[in-house]
Design brief:
Blueprint (H helix, E strand, L loop, with lengths): L13 H6 L4 E5 L6 H14 L4 E5 L5 H11 L8 H25 L3 E5 L2 H11 L4 H12 L6 E6 L2 H12 L11 H17 L4 E5 L4 H11 L7
Parallel strand pairs: 1-3, 1-4, 2-3, 4-5
The protein binds ligand Z5A.
The site of ligand Z5A has 25 residues, from helix 2, helix 5, helix 7 and helix 9.
């Protein structure tokens, strides 16, 4: 994880978090890749071993961040430009880190998070055209640059993902999920490019298979982090 300047407002300094037994795992990928399903399966497996797990999601996870989620995803109105969107996601994340994620890590719990910073880099960056440097700068301000120990990137052809989403949601779409195919293709390419820049943090898993096979691969990829 990245270094944190002494005296930052995040509840516990990053080096303190590194020392503790808790682990911060994020799930990333396009809509319908199976993130929520796999986050739940991982949390269940960890709890079965007696580990304290906080399962959470972005945007959201705290009352304030859930309120921002409604602003971001409801389909009324004209919508946000990419910069406004990035600021709102960063604000939601800041509250989420300060009030939920950092305290959980500080007491040694595992945090399993359905989407985190890399979604901003892929959607507002790859999809919306903001620079990665600007998004990382916002993250440094909002959340002292806190990064997960491991990020599981579920890779799935956006066309297959769209079929899964249509089966689940019918015609209902949110403001971001409803963007065109070219936008989602840029997001998909951005996730894969971001993962290549941090091979120690990212695990890429082929999400086109059945949920149990994917879960087994995720557990194997996290073997070094799992409690003994
Ligand atoms: N966003 C952003 O732009 N910037 C940011 O910084 C952040 C987010 C944090 C949040 O949407 C939106 O915010 C998202 C990105 C943007 N918009 N888009 N696109 P959300 O939270 O409402 O939804 P989501 O994150 O996109 O996830 P999702 O649609 O719920 O999909 P999922 O969690 O990856 O998949 P799932 O719910 O586990 O599974 C989807 C369906 O497929 C479901 O019916 C499952 O039963 C089924 N499924 C799951 N696994 C399988 C397998 N292996 N085979 C077959 N079927 C499966």
């Amino acid at each position: 994880m990245t270094a944190v300047e002494p005296g930052t407002t995040v509840v516990t300094a990053q080096r303190e978090i590194d020392r503790l037994s808790g682990r911060f795992i994020s799930f990333e990928g396009g809509e319908g890749a199976g993130k929520s399903t796999q986050a739940r399966m991982l949390a269940d497996a960890l709890r079965a071993q007696g580990t304290e797990v906080v399962i959470t999601r972005e945007p959201g996870g705290t009352p304030g961040a859930e309120a921002i989620r409604t602003l971001l995803l409801t389909t009324e109105g004209t919508g946000w430009n990419a910069r406004a969107e990035a600021l709102l996601f960063a604000a939601a994340r800041s509250d989420h880190v300060e009030r939920l994620i950092a305290p959980a890590l500080a007491r040694g719990a595992w945090v399993v998070c359905d989407r985190y910073l890399d979604s901003s880099r892929a959607y507002q960056g790859g999809g919306g055209g903001l620079t990665d440097a600007d998004l990382l700068a916002l993250h440094a301000i909002g959340s002292s640059g806190l990064l997960p120990h491991r990020t599981v990137l579920l890779t799935l052809d956006p066309a297959i993902a769209a079929t899964r989403i249509a089966l689940r949601d019918g015609d209902a779409v949110d403001r971001i999920g409803g963007r065109d195919r070219a936008y989602h293709d840029r997001v998909d390419a951005a996730f894969r490019a971001i993962a290549r820049t941090a091979p120690d943090r990212f695990v890429q898993i082929d999400a086109s298979r059945n949920a149990q096979a994917i879960h087994r691969d995720i557990l194997a990829s996290l073997a070094a982090d799992l409690p003994a």
